[in-house]
Amino acid sequence: MSDFSSLSNQFLIAMPALNDPNFSRTVTLVCEHSPEGAMGVTINRQLELSINDIFKQLDIEPNKTVPPGSFVYQGGPVQENRGFVLHEPLGNWESTLAISENLGLSTSQDILQAIATGQGPEKCLLALGYAGWGPGQLEHEIRENTWLSGPADREVIFETALELRWQAAAQSMGVDLNALSGEAGHA
Q1: CA–CA distance, 72 with 57 (Å, rounded to integer)
Q2: pTM score, two decimals?
Q3: Which of 1, 34, 89, 157 has the highest count of CB atoms within 10 angstroms of its CB?
Q4: Buried b / exposed e across 93-125, counting CB within 10 Å, b at 16+?
Q5: How far is 149 from 27, CA to CA, in rounded Å?
Q6: Domains and CATH numbers, the chain
Q7: Spatial contact of 140 and 38, defined as CB atoms under 8 Å apart
Q8: Which tens digits make up the pLDDT trace of 53-86?
Q9: d(CA 187, CA 181)
């Protein structure tokens, strides 16, 4: 497909009318997008787990105090028992997908070991599960006005308070979600 345009390193912001419980009011970072489909990680759905809970499950003994607020996120409804670490800088981990020149998504346990010992990446977000789309599905959903898409903003991912990320991601694109109607075609 010659006119394919990848949405990798873009935010997908759920439009106000999206009522799917998996994605209502979410911000998802598209990590990989090709004609075969897309995968992303939701960055604003916190689970009732801390990173220390994950360390315990994996028998990783942290020798550094993990800061409070090191929560685990619900990355999406696919493979919810699989961990993904969204991080910067990119680093050199066993299994990393480069999203941009500074941002990566790692799935190998070595990055968790490094985080537990204070040798991990400068910024990171740990998620369980991911969001996935089949060939053409994401493009169709965007055409149907399910998602607002635009450039990812590292500040929204790593610096913005959880409850503000949905609005902040849209504002980084100049959109006020409060001004959008859930109704289509009504002036």
Answers
A1: 13
A2: 0.90
A3: 157
A4: beebbebeeebbbbeeebbbbbbbeeebbeebb
A5: 10
A6: 10-177 (3.40.1740.10)
A7: no
A8: 898 889 988 886 666 557 899 999 999 999 999 9
A9: 10
